[in-house]
Amino acid sequence: MPDALPLITGTAGAGWTMGLVFLALSTLSSVGFAAILRHNESRAGSRLVLLASNYVVAAACGAAYWAITGAKPIGGLTLAFGLLGGFFFVSTAWIMTAAMARVGIGITVAVTRLSVILPIVASITVYSEYPSLIQTVGLALAGASLYLFGVSAGAIREGARPPLKNWLILSGVFAAMGCANLLLKLFSEHCPRADKPGFLTVVFSVALVFAGALARIRREKVAAADVRLGLLLGVPNFCSTIFFILALAAIPGIIVFPVNDIGVVVISTLVGMAVWHERLDPARRWALALALASIALINVR
Questions:
Q1: pLDDT tens-digit readout, 175-188
Q2: 17-26, 76-85, 113-122, 157-166: lowest mean pLDDT where?
Q3: pLDDT digit string (tens) for 109-127?
Q4: Which of 197, 243, 245, 267 could make an S-S bridge to 26, C-beta 3.0–4.6 Å?
Q5: What is the 3-state secondary structure (H, E, C) of 225-249?
Q6: Is 274 helix (H, G, I), strand (E, B) or coil?
Q7: Could you tell me how far CA 166 lies from the centroid of its own chain?
Q8: What is the pLDDT of residue 212?
Q9: In whole angstroms, what is the distance from residue 269 CA to residue 284 CA?
Q10: Per-residue pLDDT for 1 more than 50?
Q11: 83: Cβ contacts below 8 Å, ≥ 6 apart
Q12: Which residues have a Cβ under 8 Å from the Cβ of 178 and sit 6 or more positions away?
């Protein structure tokens, strides 16, 4: 493998072959992150201890990334976005784990990927970035798939009638992840690209402090197994971001974004079926099909 340092620092590009490798690694890292969250729920581990331990690794990796890229100082706006990002990252991961316990990994991951609708709406209303006809169709399909995901989620535990709690928790996943994506959109629009290493370091560090404080306030038991699993979780959490950046440095975003999102949804669904025996009922099949079509169409430029 060629030296990846120039790619990380943004000083050079890479060929398509390496770009595809990075894209695959980013996708698998995202699936690994979701799978570890799902595994923690199946073993009834502490969510907060898991998340806090995860951010120890992510923050350390972020600091190393920042140092490698020159440790350039960041602006006040970047710092503010980083502080908010730490809060949204913890909130999103917390709600995701709760959702996985109730509706499974496949539905939860798909809803997180569809949350891109929120920054798209912001782009339309704030930045006048109007979608094309194809993208509008994709947004409509996303709405239909979210409804079907809600129907399917309810059918898991309560038969044909979906319980309100499942709908609410999926709405929470969508809103939390959407806000996190919106924050990234704001960062990309208003902050220098050179601030990205510092921004990620601040996000992960704040998330560590926030998750640790919540664990202490709630007097969560710090079990060695939860800490070890959390430290393991930090690896795919950070790697998914870095590999995604590296993929974007080598391959056009019009390919990277939909392929990554579709790959994460499909593989996560298959993992859920194989490992936790999550069933693929008709509503979920249609929801997944519409979600995948929506992701592909929304990313058409």
A1: 999 999 889 888 88
A2: 157-166
A3: 999 999 988 888 887 888 7
A4: 243
A5: HHHHHHHHHHHHHHHHHHHHHHHHH
A6: helix
A7: 20
A8: 95
A9: 10
A10: no
A11: 202, 206
A12: 115, 116, 117, 118, 119
Quote the tokens at residue 199.
Answer: 């921004």
Angle at 25 between CA 174 and CA 61, to 5 degrees: 80
Task: Classify residue 128 as exposed, middle or buried by CB count within 10 Å of its CB (0-12, 13-18, 19+).
Answer: exposed
pTM of the model: 0.87
Locate 107 and state its tokens: 């539905």
3-class state of residue 43 by DSSP: coil
Write out the two tokens for 118: 């929120």
Residue with tokens 């800490």: 227
Q: Are 77 and 191 in contact (CB under 8 A)?
A: yes
Instruction: Pull the structure tokens for residue 283.
Output: 């509503």
Within 13 Å, how many C-alpha atoms sit on residue 9's CB side?
13
Residue type, 211: A
Q: Place 155 in a pLDDT band, splitting at 50, 70 and 90.
A: low
d(CA 115, CA 172): 10
